[in-house]
Amino acid sequence: MTTLIFGHQNPDTDAITSAMSWAEFQKQAGNTDVEAVALGEPNDETKFVLDHFKVQAPRVIKTAANETDTVMLVDHNEFQQSVADIEDVQIASVVDHHRIANFHTAAPLFYRAEPVGSTNTVIFELFQEHGYTISPTLAGLMASGLISDTLLLKSPTATDKDKKILPEMAKIAGIDLQSYGLAMLKAGTNLAAKSDMDIIEGDAKSFTMGGKSIRIGQVNTVDLDDIYARQDDLLNAMTKEAQAKGYDDFLLIATDILNSNSTGFAVGADRDKVAAAFNEKFDTNARLALPGVVSRKKQIVPPMQKVFEG
């Protein structure tokens, strides 16, 4: 029976490419009956990557237990971010770079997590540790995941290890980091082609904080005015989605990838708590200025968790 490998829901570039790179690792380790799949369609940035390296996108699954009894997780561990029937399958391994929460297994497993910029950083290390072969195409996919998650190493999540490994990936892949990286990041910022739901849910994750269900979405742009022009529609969409899915609060982070600043928008009963997490206040335009903030994992979730659970 084939073991399915996948990243989180609403997959970003690191989620999809790390599933593919971990599948290749497994095959070189002798575990050939594995398949990289995805819990959602690739976004525009990821499509750019797959097209550039002429790689087919993994197929999308909604459930896993109807196909297999064993899965491997990459780029996530929290059950609310995983496949809908995660409790009905055995988790054989996890490779991740996030916090560990809402996670348990009935059997022992392989678990590798490091506080680095991307899951592909960890997988690249594992390839090196085992002496496995990294093809130019695979290196390009891995580099793309790292570029995406660290905004070309501009994010505070980028560690010294990432800064050392990314040029190594790029050399194997035969890409120029700056030109390829910027083109890749810009490919994901064509907001005119995105619906309101695409923007608020395209890269959204759910978190439990202080007993509250918090949805945090993030969208990259090269011009925040593109977001401001659609603000009312986006807030309406967030309100409807929160009511439909039972979120107590929905926060959308719009990130200017060129200037490394963000603006926050929120709906729900706890907007004051959201603002307090950043020692800021929503202005008269219902916008929360977040200068220097680009990372949900490192700069958004921890301060919010501290306020909501304090």
Automatic annotation (TrEMBL):
> Reaction catalysed by this chain?
diphosphate + H2O = 2 phosphate + H(+)
List the Gene Ontology MF annotations in alphabetical order. inorganic diphosphate phosphatase activity; metal ion binding
- The question of whether Manganese is a record keyword is answered with yes
GO cellular component labels: cytoplasm
Limits of the DHHA2 domain: 181-308
- Which leading EC class covers this enzyme? hydrolase
Enzyme Commission numbers on file: 3.6.1.1
Family, per entry: Belongs to the PPase class C family.
User: By what name is this protein known?
Assistant: Probable manganese-dependent inorganic pyrophosphatase
Organism expressing this protein natively: Lacticaseibacillus zeae
